[in-house]
Specification:
This protein has 195 residues and is α+β, with helices and mostly antiparallel strands. It has 3 domains: 36 residues; 85 residues, SH3 type barrels, CATH 2.30.30.100; 67 residues, SH3 type barrels, CATH 2.30.30.100. Helix content is 35%, strand content 31%. It contains 5 helices and 10 strands; from the N terminus they run ααβββββαααβββββ. It has a 10-stranded antiparallel beta sheet with strand order 5-1-2-3-4-10-6-7-8-9. A hairpin with a 2-residue loop joins strand 6 and strand 7. Helix 2 packs across helix 3. The chain is elongated, with a radius of gyration of 25 Å.
């Protein structure tokens, strides 16, 4: 009779050790998964699981931006700027200094499981220069936030690492007589593009 209890006890201990080992393995896998996530993936998870809540971003110059995201490229995100400002906006990922998490809901959304993204999705492969070239082609007047302030005008050209901006007032069409000057701006200096 005592031998039966001994074997039952040994079997129970083995099962507990195997269960503990599986739990440890799951915890380690989750830690490794989180370690591989970049800021883009965390913000994409917020977009997919955040219920449409705007992201509160602090840009590299210290300015705040509340953005309802709707697109994620390789190195940028886009969306609608929350009221009272409004309008559409593109933010280079390199310009995001902080993401402000207010309350448990935002935190839970940013800590959601890894986002599911179609590996063939074209937008996810597009870089910032491609999106800026589209704005240039459409001749869309823009507001560019760069260190030192905001510039308004029309993007004339986009190179690999810079853009040409014809500076003019937003309420005037881009004509030679309305252009106050031209600027070459390094893409690394862009904090926000709004239109």
């Amino acid at each position: 009779m005592r031998w039966e209890h001994l074997f039952d006890d040994l079997e129970s201990q083995l099962q507990q050790e195997l269960a503990a080992e599986e739990d440890d393995l799951r915890v380690e896998e989750e830690r490794l998964r989180r370690a591989r996530l970049g800021l883009r993936e965390r913000l994409l998870a917020h977009h997919q699981h955040g219920g449409g809540a705007p992201l509160r971003l602090v840009l590299a110059d210290g300015s705040d931006l509340a953005l309802r995201t709707d697109g994620f490229g390789r190195d940028w995100l886009s969306g609608v700027v929350a009221a009272p400002i409004g309008g559409r906006c593109i933010v280079p990922m390199a310009a995001v200094a902080q993401v402000v998490l207010d309350g448990g809901g935002s935190h839970a959304a940013v800590d959601a499981p890894a986002p599911t993204e179609d590996p063939g999705a074209l937008t996810a492969r597009l870089g910032l220069p491609f999106v800026l070239r589209d704005l240039a082609r459409r001749r869309r007047p823009v507001r560019l936030l760069v260190p030192g302030g905001e510039l308004t005008g029309t993007i004339d050209r986009v190179g690999r690492d810079h853009l040409d901006l014809a500076v003019h007032a937003l309420d005037e069409p881009r004509r030679d007589r309305s252009v106050q000057g031209r600027r070459l701006i390094g893409l690394a200096q862009l904090l926000r593009v709004r239109w």
